[in-house]
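Entry 12.
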Amino acid sequence: MHIPDGFLSPQTYLPAWGVATVAWAWAGRGLAQRLDETLVPRLAMLTALAYALGLIMLPLPGGTSGHAIGVAALALIFGVRLAFLAYSGVLLLQALLFGAGGITALGVNALALGLLGAAVAVGVRRLLAGCGDNVAVALAAFVSLQVSALLIALVLGVQPLIAQREDGSPLFFPLGFAVTVPAVLLPHLLIGIGEAALTVLVWRYAKRKGWVAG
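Predicted 3D structure (tokens):
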């Protein structure tokens, strides 16, 4: 689901970098407030899991990819701010070391997968708390992945409308919503099932260890 470099117009990635920078500062304050000798190894372990999940990529039409991301597990255990910060680090390393995603697209990827994904997971979990832990966590992970995938698809699909040559041809990503939305969303419906199952397992482990309350 990473967007590579060269797909996004400056009209898209520059504002995204601005918003992401403010969000990273906010998330960094959250880390500083909670940083201790018990948090670091736990956060590092689950961030490493998210990093590994992001490297198992299914190529999708148009040049992006489909994969589980692990953000929901991070968010449900550590909260939105730490999940966003941790996954932003994952995206940066994947872009630098493996060419998965890109530097210009980092702001968009971090906001869509890290911040939005984490916020949706926490919101759905709270909304469905009365349904039982396993159901609420599974649906939180599933919905989180679909919302992130939808935003990525919309960002890609809008590119032909906002960046064009004089003859009207796209300057950057050439495919519109009719292609990007089904191409990105449909595979992630299946991937989301795996993400949900994995998130439940990770969350239950964390609960047994006393990392989460309730």
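Annotation: The CA atoms of residues 1 and 109 lie 8 Å apart. The helical segments are 10-34, 39-54, 71-78, 80-98, 106-127, 133-162, 177-208.
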